[in-house]
Amino acid sequence: MIHDVAIVGGGICGLSIGWKLAKRGLRVLILEKGEAGHGATWAALGILFPRVGDDPRGPAFTKLCVESHRLWPTFAKEVESESGIEIDYGREGTLLPAFEAREEDQLRRQYALLRKSRVGAKWVSGKELRSLEPNMSYGVKSALFNPLVHRVDNRKLALALKKAFLVVGDFLEKTSVAKIVIQGGRVIGVSAGGSAIRAHKVIIAAGAWSAGIPGLDERIRPPVRPVKGQVISVKVPEGRRLLSHVIHYADTFLVQRRDGRLLIGATVEERGFDTKVTAGAISKLLTVALAVIPDIDTLPLGEAWAGTRPGSPDGAPILGGTNVEGLVMATGHFRNGILLAPITADLVSEYVISDKLPALAQPFTMNRFSN
After folding, report:
1. Whole-structure pTM over 0.90, yes or no?
2. 329 and 250 share a domain?
3. Range of the structural domain that residue 106 is part of
């Protein structure tokens, strides 16, 4: 059997691309060295945050994020409809609190940028804030409300995508790819599980592990490295709602799941593939959370975990073809894998089918690292 497409990596991007391609009639096989969606996808917070106006990665990256954000409501409905699993997609927005004048000044600059973009941002006084989030610290003077920030339960999303994909495609879990097989300047498949698997095209969507897949020489090895992130959860009593919005303070997010868990994260650490949970990181996360929501102080700690995101040199994803015919990249999404899943699936699927890379993806090919 020859597959139309073999995808190396069964995280959010690999699953989304595979699902889209298989629904368009292609024979797709996903190979995952662990369990589906249990890498960076499982470790994430599920925050969908397109930065508008001030992203240092430039306007092309902002456009990519905004377009994917626009696709998310439809993407969420399709995933839920075809899997029968609710993924807890919410559009309540985020509140960015300010405790002191310096923080207010910084947030007002963000507010001005958001107002130029006409996204419905609002400045919230301390009094208004109490009605929106009664459990927020009285030390908060004011806050910026950004309606663009949405959320999803990333673990439910991974399970839903896997279920939807299995209806239309093939999946091999706990199967490491031993080699990308290339002959005569084109890819002909992969070696995995002791077998040769033939495929007309191979997509690298292995997240932080993408650069280490055997068979990729320096010309076609994606410059992706692991960037560690740690998260902790707090157990909120059943029926109690501590937060109604996503909270973003000191580069830390707080989000409450429907099951009551309050998630706090995530750190950004250059530690290679180390996924140990450390006391220092958890202490920093809890310090931020307690400053914003003091009532957390009396609640029991839940799960703590760490994962590795795929970081590229410029923090933007790597999409599209390579110097090897049939070898395609979909990796390097860093902190934006969940947000960018819908647009990544659309762009990469279109490229695989038509051999033409859509304009939106063209700034993100491997070619930008050639010098």
Report:
1. yes
2. no
3. 94-147
Instruction: Read off the pLDDT of residues 251-290 as tens digits, 9 standing for 90 and up.
Output: 999 999 998 899 999 999 999 999 999 999 999 999 999 9
Are 183 and 71 contained in the same domain? yes
355: left (phi over 0), alpha (psi -120 to 50) or beta: left
CA distance 32 to 207: 11
> What's the angle, vertex CA 55, arms to CA 51 and CA 56, rounded to 5?
160
CA distance 170 to 22: 9
Q: How many structural domains is the chain composed of?
A: 3
Domain boundary among 278, 309, 340: 309
In this structure, the answer to whether residues 207 and 248 fall within a common structural domain is: no
Burial class (CB in 10 A: 0-12, 13-18, 19+), 218: exposed
Give the tens place of pLDDT for each residue, 291-313: 999 999 999 999 999 999 999 99
pLDDT per position as a tens digit, 117-148: 888 999 999 999 999 999 999 999 999 999 99
Within this chain, do residues 231 and 99 fall inside the same structural domain, yes or no? no
To which residue do tokens 């597959």 refer? 3
Give the SS3 label for residue 359.
helix
